[in-house]
Design a protein that fits this description.
mainly beta, 69 residues
Length: 69
Amino acid sequence: MLAQSRVIAKGRRIRDVQRLVRNHGGKPYSWVKKASPSFKMAGHTYEYHWYECRAIGRIELKRKRMDIQ
């Protein structure tokens, strides 16, 4: 599922990029925010969202419910 991810934002377009650099390292331009394809679980639709930096890897993985009005 993570291999089929899509990019949500890159570099300075990531709202938390300065926090990511301060807490985890790397350069602002090297960070990417990604999302998994949506999936169903217990009657609800979810996606996984996370940040990636090539030198650091994936961090702050969270499951986000997408069918909330």
